[in-house]
């Protein structure tokens, strides 16, 4: 049987893997909802309100799942990792409290207005509530990324008798890796939601739902995805250079590079062997890693063999999981790039009626490819998260707290039993979540467009909003 340390690490990884799926959606989906609402207000076109009403349900479901799983995850600090708070609780505790006070409370207060207040409060208040919920999810991300980044690149503190005390909160918050991680995470969420919207809308279109709101959602998802993915690739490159400066062992594991030196090849494929200290069946591009990381073929790239102590103690992270998770993340990103740009190239062709971005111009293989890509953001986010967190090992807080020093003294069978319980519950919840999302998608396919249920055009509804003092289009019936 594995020891308590390994089981506790697996258990925390399972908890955070399940939890991160839902904030990855809500972070960006709040801003998409604001986009749909503003588009409706500016144009009076009810297709945007149909999009809002559908996706606000997905937001509510994802928000609830994220809250519940986040609470469970926080218990891990006490049950499995008491040494973490004992050692760095003076830093981690306030940062988590700031997240609750500035972000979670904001979301909790205004999400009710956003979900149920459309026809009950002035229109400006409902729009403001949508903005504040979106802003709250972003602020929540900010504080969580601050803590996580500090664990990777700690500064602004001093250790007294094994306990960290803050000396400069500005340095703690704006630690060296925080800006890169924050940008990377926000862009990852934007891409996750872009492809989720395009994928579910493509499913509705394939099943015969040809309403204008469906076509608009496909166009919007692909457009935002095509815009964000090159920015994410650029941000990822900057993040990689920052990681090279502060965590060279992680980069060496990501690259599968064993020897330090110039003219380092970029390993595309290989099977890392830590015992033999080499890669089997390696396929590489000559000088590729040196060019990417040092912008010169003669650039010196760190190797894993530099991170082995004289007594044989390994000071670098496990190579295989970091190596492969990094490639899954990058591969998924390039699939997003090719699919979004390729789809837009077809959509941009002028249709028979003179309009551009006609969905019927999209080849069926590309339309079908969008459906599984609806969850591609989850795959890329999890792969990136594993690269980041496993790559920090053997440290919990780099250079400050060893992972083995923070684990609870709990019998391994007890940790195993709770791990099995978590995995069973999470599998059931994930199945239920996806089932509800598919059900809502199919239900929306059978629903009538709002334009057919309201007396008058979208402009008339906007006029009604103004006449009612901004109370919202009451003629739109509840589903």
Short structural description:
The protein has 479 residues and is mainly α. 67% of the residues lie in helices and 6% in strands.
Tally the helices: 15
How is the biggest beta sheet arranged?
2 strands, antiparallel
What is the CA-CA span between the terminal residues?
A: 52 Å
Strand order of the largest sheet: 1-2
Task: Write up what this structure looks like.
With 479 residues, the protein is mainly alpha-helical. 67% of the residues lie in helices and 6% in strands. The strands form 3 sheets. It has a two-stranded antiparallel ribbon with strand order 1-2. A hairpin with a 2-residue loop joins strand 1 (157-160) and strand 2 (163-166). Helix 1 runs antiparallel to helix 2 (46-79) and helix 2 runs parallel beside helix 7 (212-246). The model is unreliable at 451-479 (pLDDT under 50).
Comma- or semicolon-separated keywords:
single chain, mainly alpha, 15 helices, 6 strands, 67% helix, globular
């Amino acid at each position: 049987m594995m020891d308590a340390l390994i089981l506790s690490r697996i258990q925390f990884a399972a908890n955070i893997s399940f939890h991160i799926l839902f904030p990855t959606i809500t972070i960006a989906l709040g801003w998409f909802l604001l986009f749909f609402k503003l588009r409706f207000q500016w144009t009076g076109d009810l297709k945007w309100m149909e999009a809002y009403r559908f996706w606000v349900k997905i937001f509510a479901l994802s928000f609830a799942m994220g809250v519940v799983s986040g609470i469970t995850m926080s218990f891990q600090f006490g049950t499995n990792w008491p040494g973490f708070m004992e050692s760095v609780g003076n830093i981690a505790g306030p940062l988590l409290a700031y997240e609750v006070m500035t972000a979670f409370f904001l979301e909790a207060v205004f999400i009710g207005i956003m979900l149920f207040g459309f026809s009950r409060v002035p229109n400006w208040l409902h729009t403001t509530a949508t903005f504040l919920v979106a802003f709250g999810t972003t602020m929540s991300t900010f504080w969580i990324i601050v803590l996580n980044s500090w664990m990777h690149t700690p500064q602004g503190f001093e250790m007294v008798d094994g306990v960290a005390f803050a000396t400069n909160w500005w340095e703690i918050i704006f630690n060296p890796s925080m800006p890169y991680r924050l940008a990377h995470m926000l862009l990852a969420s934007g891409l996750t939601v872009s492809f989720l919207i395009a994928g579910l809308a493509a499913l509705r279109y394939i099943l015969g739902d040809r309403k204008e709101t469906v076509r608009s959602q496909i166009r919007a998802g692909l457009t935002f995805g095509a815009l964000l993915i090159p920015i994410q690739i650029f941000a990822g490159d900057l993040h990689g250079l920052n990681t090279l400066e502060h965590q060279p062992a992680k980069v060496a594991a990501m690259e599968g590079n064993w020897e330090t030196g110039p003219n380092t090849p970029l390993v595309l494929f290989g099977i890392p062997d830590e015992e033999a200290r080499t890669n089997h069946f390696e396929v590489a591009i000559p000088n590729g890693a040196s060019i990417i990381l040092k912008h010169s073929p003669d650039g010196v790239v760190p190797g894993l063999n530099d991170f082995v102590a004289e007594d044989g103690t390994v000071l670098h992270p496990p190579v295989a999981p970091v190596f492969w998770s990094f490639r899954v993340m990058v591969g998924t990103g390039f699939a997003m790039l090719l699919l979004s740009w390729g789809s837009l190239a077809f959509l941009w062709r002028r249709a028979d009626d003179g309009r551009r971005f006609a969905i019927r111009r999209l080849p069926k293989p590309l339309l079908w490819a969008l459906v599984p890509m609806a969850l591609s953001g989850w795959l890329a986010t999890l792969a990136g998260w594993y690269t980041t967190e496993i790559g920090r090992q053997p440290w919990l807080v780099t250079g400050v707290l060893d992972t083995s020093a923070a684990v609870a003294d709990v019998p391994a069978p007890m940790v195993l039993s709770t791990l099995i319980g978590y995995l069973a519950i999470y599998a059931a919840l994930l199945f239920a979540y996806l089932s509800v999302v598919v059900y809502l998608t199919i239900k929306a396919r059978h629903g009538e467009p709002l334009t057919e249920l309201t007396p008058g055009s979208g402009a008339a509804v906007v006029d009604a909003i103004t006449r009612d003092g901004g109370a919202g289009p009451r003629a739109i019936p509840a589903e």
